[in-house]
Design brief:
This protein has about 675 residues and is an alpha+beta fold. It has 22 helices and 16 strands. It comes from Frankia torreyi.
Amino acid sequence: MTPASPSHPAAGPLADLWSGEFAPRQPLALVVLPKVGFALAHHLPAGPPPLPPSHPTSTPVTLVVSAPEPAEAAELVAEIERRCAPRWVWWSASAAVPPATQVRLAACWDLAAVHRLLHGGRRDDPAAVWAAAAGLPLPPPPSRPPGPAARVAPGQLGLWEGTGDDPAARHRLDPTGAEGISAGGGVDTRGTREPVGAGGPLGAGGAFSAGGGFGLGGADGPLAGDGQLDAGWLHRAAGPGEALRRAAALAALALQAQHRQQAALNGLADRRARPGRTSLAVLTARAESAAELLARELERDGLPIDRATAETLLAEIVGPPPRTDADELAARRRRDAPVLAHLRGPVDLRNPAAVRAALRAVGIDVPDTRSGRLEPLRDAHPAVAALLAWRRTERIATTYGHRWLDTHVAPDGRLRGAWHGSDGAAGRMTAQAGLHNLPADLRAAVVAEPGRVFVRADLGQIEPRVLAVVSADPALAAATQADDMYAPVAAQLGRDRPQAKIAMLAAMYGQTTGSAGEALRRMRRAYPTALAYLDAADAAGRSGRDLRTYGGRLVRLAPTPRPPRGLTDPAPPDEASPAAGGVTEQARGRFARNAVIQGPAAELFKAWAVTVRAELPALGGEIVLCLHDELLLHVPIAHAEAAADLLRRALAATAAYWSTASGVRFVADVSILHRWSDAAH
C-alpha cells in the first residue's frame, strides 16, 4: 500500500492523526459501517484527565470517513495503522474486523473481551458492556430489529443485533451484507472532523457542534434517560451521513467504556511476586483483546489440509463417500458388523442402555459404557475391543466424514471454522468445524503447503507449572526447573513418575478416591502451599463465592442450574438431578479448583500466542492453529529455524512479566514438521 497523498479525499482530517498529534499506542476508537465508511474517536495529546471511573472523560475528537468500497476502507485503516500505531478500541473485533480483510492491526482493546474478563459470564453485547462499565443494571438481552432488513448495513451495526448468551451467535450475522443504507445519496461526510460532548446523564457537554451531530444522552443520543445504551439507536439513522455521525458518537462512547474498564482493572490486586508498572490485569486485557484479533485471522486463513490425503484416509476408515441413503445405511451396517459379531442378537450400538445390556449378556457388567470405563476391560472380551474401535470409526464417519470435508475445506485447501478468543469460565480459545477436536487418524492430512513447513510448539506440563506460580509454592517452583517436572515431583513423593502425575492431576481436578488417594496425601505433605491454594478455591466453589484468576478473570461460582463451562470444559463428574436443585456443592468445588488453574493457563497461553503473532509477519508466517497449549505456525522453509527461535523467545518474554520473581520455569517442545501427524502427541 502506498502512503496517503495530499490529494486523497481523506488526507486532510486524517493528516491530523499522523502529523504528530497522535501518540503511538494511544487509544483510537473505531466503528465500522460496511459499504458506508467508518468513524474514529480519540483524545487530544494530553489525553483524558486522571479522573475517577464515575466521572466522564475529556471530550474526544471524532472523524467520520465515507468509504463505500471495502478495499478503500481497508486501505485507510491500514494507513492509520502504519503511520500512527494506535491501540484500536472497538466494541467487538468480530464486528470491527471483517473476516476477509487482509489489514493487519497490531494492538487493540476489545471491549467485549475485557468485559468478559472483568465480569465473567458469556453475555458481551454492547448494551451489557456499557451497563457494566457505567455501573448500571444489566439490561434485557438485545434482539434483532424488526422487519426484513435493517436500515443500515450490518457488521459493526450488527453489534446491536445482539448475541444474548450464545457466543457463537455473532458468527451467524452477515458482517459484509449490503442491505439497508447504501453508500449513495445522503450527506457526504467523507473526512469530517468533529468533537463529541459527553452529554446526557454522564455529565455536561455539547454534542457535535459541526454539522448537527449528536450528544451521548438525551433524545438524539445513544444513551436513554436511565443511562442505558439504546440498542436500536444506530438502526434508526435516516441515511449514510447520519449513520456515520451516529457511529462517531458510539466511537466516543467506546472510549469512555475503555477508560472505565481500565480503571476497574487497575483496581484489581496484582498477585505477581514483583508487580510491574502496568498491572497484570491490564496486560491480560491487552492479550485477551489481541487474541480476538488472532481469532479473526485464524478464521480467515484456515488450517492447510491436503484434500487428496484426507479423502484417502476417510476411505480407509469409513469407506467411499455415500451417494444415496441406501449407501449410507449399508456403510453403517458395515461399521456395526464387527461388534455385533461378538454380541447376542441385534443391538442398537447408538443406544448406551442397549449396549450396556448386551455387554452384561456376555459377562461384562459395567455401570456405564464410557470409553474410559471400557478401556481397562479391552482384553476381557472381544466385544469390548471391537466396540472401542467402532466408536472411533463411528465418530469419524458421523462428525468428520466426507460431508465434513465438503462443507468445511475450501477449494484453496484450507479448513475454516469460527473461532472465539475466550469461551466459558476457563477463558480458553475455542473453534468450530472440528478444528479443536480433529481425530489423530486425520492429522496426517494436515500438510504444509509447497515451500513451507509447520513449526509446532507444545507447552510442557503447563498446568502444574501454572499451579506453582499462582500458589507461590517454593517447593513446587523448584520442581519446574526440570524439563520434565514430574521427575522431581516423583522423587519428592517417593513414587514413580506415573504415580506422581496421577497425584498432580488428582490435586488439580479434585479426585480423592482410588489410586489417587494415597498419592494425594503425599502431595499435601510435599507441597502444602499449593494444596492449600487449591483447597481454598474448592471451598469457595462449594459456598458459591466468585473467584478471580491470577490474571483477573472473574469466575462465577454462585449456584446455577448447570455449571458455567465452555465448549471444551469437561462436565463436572457428579451433577445432581434437576429435582435436587442442579449442581452439587462437590461439583462446584471441583469446578472452582480446576478453573483457578485452567484459567491462568489459558491466559498465559494467549499472552504467548499474541506475542508470537506480533513478530511472525516479519518471517512471512502465520499462526494456523491454537490448541489449548499448542501453537502451530505455517512458515517459509527458509525461516523455519527463526520461527522456532521466536516461539522460545516469546515464551521467555511472556513468562518474564507474567510470572516475574516466581522462580517458575516454563518450557516448550518445539519441532519443525511437514505434517502435523509427524509430531509426538
